[in-house]
Amino acid sequence: MKQYKLSKQDSSGGYRYEPEKGDADSFTVDIKQRPIGENPFIFLYRDSRTQQDQKDIALAAGRLSTSSSFKIYLGDPKCYFEDYDKSLPWEKMNIERPESTWSLGFAESDLRRDFIWKKTRRIAVDGVDKPSRLLAQNWKLTCANDPDDVLAIFTGDLGLSRGGTLQIDVDWGIQFEHMVLITLVCQFSKHKQPASQSSGSSLATAPGGI
């Protein structure tokens, strides 16, 4: 089991994951102004333990041009917004109310699973008796074919922090973990980020100089 503290970065508009339980890295999520088209604008960085200044892009996400769904790139798209790596495999995150769905293939077992983020008022992360009914940001992650098997839980904080605690209860590999991290942020962002009118010079290069 792993727990992360998710906090909003007021100055940048992104998020920060800090590990609280389990053997885990910290992560940063940068959210840029949404460009036109399917270009990525949400970036999940893995913070290196050995070199403080080094960050690796684990996943990136954009919006599908034909819908409000997210397009999650499984790797580093070498994020030049006009010429990013379009050959990367990707997964679709369907945005629905009150649920969001996504899928992931597991190469080691040749399986493909479908997942659902859905609101919960009954269960919370370890150390919290029950999620607050005052918050909309309380979610659980389950498999579509086994809704009683909870894989991850997010319990929001009270107040204006727009953060909370993420608990991942299964060890299904690093790519699954990264997908949980980025799809949770997409949950926060799914009704925001209107498309900009142009990709703009500020979006010409990858964030952070990566």
What are its keywords?
disordered C terminus; twelve-stranded antiparallel β-barrel; globular; mainly beta
- Low-pLDDT windows of residues: 194-210
Number of strands: 12
Query: Strand portion, in percent?
Result: 35-45%
Helix fraction?
under 10%
- Helix-strand sequence: EEEEEEEEEEEEH
Radius of gyration (CA) equals 17 Å
Main sheet record? 12 strands, antiparallel, barrel
Architecture, CATH level 2? Alpha-Beta Barrel
Shape: globular
Structural class: mainly beta
Q: How many separate domains make up the residues? A: 1
| Lateral strand order in the biggest sheet | 1-2-3-4-5-6-7-8-9-10-11-12
CATH topology, what is it called?
Answer: Tubby Protein, Chain A
In whole angstroms, how far apart are the ends? 31 Å
Q: How many helical stretches?
A: 1
CATH class identity: Alpha Beta
Give the averaged pLDDT, no decimals: 81
Structure report:
The protein has 210 residues and is mainly beta. It has one domain: Tubby Protein, Chain A (Alpha-Beta Barrel), CATH 3.20.90. 8% of the residues lie in helices and 39% in strands. It is built from one helix and twelve strands; from the N terminus they run ββββββββββββα. It has one helix at residues 174-189, and strands at residues 2-8, 15-21, 27-31, 42-47, 55-63, 70-73, 90-95, 100-106, 111-119, 138-143, 146-156, 164-168. Strands 1-2-3-4-5-6-7-8-9-10-11-12 form a twelve-stranded antiparallel barrel. Mean pLDDT is 81; it is low at 194-210.
